[in-house]
Amino acid sequence: MKDPGIELQTKYASLLSDITYGGVSVPFYDVVPLEAEYPHIKVGERTLLDTSNKTSFTMEVTLGLRVIDRFPANYGSRTSVYSISGDIKERIRKITNRMKLTNFNVVTSRVDNETMIEELTDTYFYFRNEIRFRHIIEDVGRGYLTYNGDDILYNGDKIAFKRYA
Questions:
Q1: Which residues of 68-105 are buried (b: 16+ CB within 10 A; e: fewer)?
Q2: 10 Å Cβ neighbour count for 5?
Q3: 54-65 tens-digit pLDDT
Q4: Which residue has the higher pLDDT, 32 or 108?
Q5: Alpha-carbon distance 93 to 7, whole Å?
Q6: Whether the model pTM is above 0.85
């Protein structure tokens, strides 16, 4: 089973790279630079649970995103964070046109959970919305499974048995 991490994050970046708020582009960061622009989207934590069985290599993958906006202390609004989060959910959760990766089939994409957090520092007031998406992903590359002592070659669309004498 291959790891879909790079392909999935690259797809997120391409789907979310042209989001705007108030006529200004919203940056998508893997690592937030010291002089970051606000509001922005940051990639968060990822989890992977192997759910493979005798006939397929599958996994449940969660990927978190943070939408963060910053205002001078004691001032601000959640509006930007909610608006950007809504755009993100529309793009990631397209049901009629599923997310396509090169070596993986994304079976489902759904919002696993979402949490709004406020933080006040000496100089800034931050609004942060943390969204976690859950995907069921199938590895469609070549691989071998074993069933009753036989090797099974799986190449994404058919299964061939190879019996040893």
A1: bbbeeeeebeeebbebbbebbbebbeeeeeebebeebb
A2: 12
A3: 888 899 999 999
A4: 32
A5: 17
A6: no
